Amino acid sequence: MSYTIDFRRKVISVRKAEGLTIRETAKQFRIGKASLVRWLKRPEPKNSTPRKRKLDKNALAKDVEQYPDAYQKERAERFGVCKKTIGNPLKSWD
Fold first, then answer.
1. To pair with 76 at 20 to 30 A between CA atoms, which of 41, 48, 63, 85?
2. Nearest CA among 89, 82, 84 for reference residue 56
3. Alpha-carbon distance 19 to 24, whole Å?
4. 86: how many CB neighbours lie within 10 A of its CB?
5. How far apart are CA 53 and CA 8, in angstroms?
6. Nearest in space to 13 (alpha carbons), one of 32, 1, 29
7. pLDDT tens, residue by residue, 23-64
8. How far apart are the first and last CA of the chain?
9. Helix, strand, or coil here: 43?
């Protein structure tokens, strides 16, 4: 669950205004201490990068024809995905 930036800033400002410790502030707002420590360093959440979820099966088929003896790890590096993403379609072809 991600808290809004407004809530994060409110928690930080209340902590500063009332002179609370991290533990007291976390207890008052019912949030984790680790979250509060992270927010103190950087109130804005990190931007996530979208992952490539699907593999082009035609491109994989061409890769298999071109490199029939390649390891899954090598194919995964060429496509920029994990080994499991390569392994699952290969299993279905058998």
1. 48
2. 89
3. 10
4. 23
5. 31
6. 29
7. 999 999 999 999 999 999 998 887 776 665 678 888 888 999
8. 41
9. coil
